[in-house]
Amino acid sequence: xxxxxxxxxxxxxxxxxxxxxxxxxxxxxxxxxxxxxxxxxxxxxxxxxxxxxxxxxxxxxxxxxxxxxxxxxxxxxxxxxxxxxxxxxxxxxxxxxxxxxxxxxxxxxxxxxxxxxxxxxxxxxxxxxxxxxxxxxxxxxxxxxxxxxxxxxxxxxxxxxxxxxxxxxxxxxxxxxxxxxxxxxxxxxxxxxxxxxxxxxxxxxxxxxxxxxxxxxxxxxxxxxxxxxxxxxxxxxxx
Length: 239
What we know:
Elements: H1 3-26, H2 39-58, H3 62-72, E1 83-86, H4 96-101, E2 111-119, E3 122-131, H5 138-146, H6 151-154, E4 161-169, E5 201-210, E6 216-225
Antiparallel strand pairs: 1-2, 2-3, 3-6, 4-5, 5-6
Signal peptide: 1-27
Keywords: Signal
Protein name: Chorismate lyase
């Protein structure tokens, strides 16, 4: 082999070694830890989903709520904030129901924005947002059109409120009547298993955002994913 060939081979070997060493540093958040499938962990999942649900119902901004949820549960590196990854090519026109909820006339321009709300590499929510650009400032519209900044963060200066149209648990970790499992009419609970199988979506909300004077300017449809539970199970499995 020529001197050049040996040198090239050595450089290639060093490059591979560097990549192998650097790979862990380039990795993002690890895969979500598996939760054992027990009554206790199902109960914990239900309580956590209901906690997030109650917080969303009592606060105006889903973005800021998810900021806190991500930080409180260490879902991403410290200091991470919610980012709206835009899903382009999925525009949906506002139908009559949406226009009515926004008190928008038939000819008023309404913009649709579909995003994945992420914290680090975790997708915590997938959301559709129909908003009235005429009710926002020029700077807000420009930021929404040209960046991945979450909607709630952009419009925060409006001091908006949130009116929930619909909120439902998409996933029920325990069957209805689970609290009577030890009562006179016992309910059959799921059998314990090695891993709790969580669906993609666990919670769904539809809400209208309004200015302090009551003017509606946005309708959001949010689907929260099981990655809100992407941390070690809070309750140990039963002995």
